[in-house]
Amino acid sequence: MAVLVTLLILTVITVGASRIDFGAANMLIAMLIASIKASLVIAIFMHVKWDTAINKIVFLSSFLFLSLLFLFTLSDQATRGMDGANERTRAPVDKEWKHPSTLQSHQ
User: Fold this and answer.
1) pTM higher than 0.70 for the full model?
2) Quick one: which of 58, 75, 78, 89 has the most CB atoms within 10 Å?
3) ∠ at Cα 9 (7, 11), nearest 5°?
4) pLDDT tens digits for range 23-55
5) d(CA 70, CA 33)
6) Helices (H), 20-52
7) Alpha-carbon span 104 to 107, nearest angstrom
8) Pick from 35, 40, 44: nearest CA to 64
9) Quick check: 51 and 70 in contact, CB under 8 A?
């Protein structure tokens, strides 16, 4: 019963946190609360708390790879604007573009 109450309280905290603007920390707070709730569900309702050591290792290693996925995704998102776009030079265009079928051919 305590786990159910804890999950319900964390759900209320999740809804409350979604209504408040924490700026750049919004995603971090949401992921932290979701990770706590997922850990409780895995440990208690999936009986990993009372399972063998090898199954615990498998679950923990899956979380390690999931965290690596999030790390690489977030680092990609953070560096999207740093591809050297401001170092590129564009050639000036002196005329409007015209479709080739409207041009007169020189023969």
Assistant:
1) no
2) 58
3) 70
4) 888 888 998 999 899 989 988 988 888 888 998
5) 15
6) 26-40
7) 9
8) 35
9) no
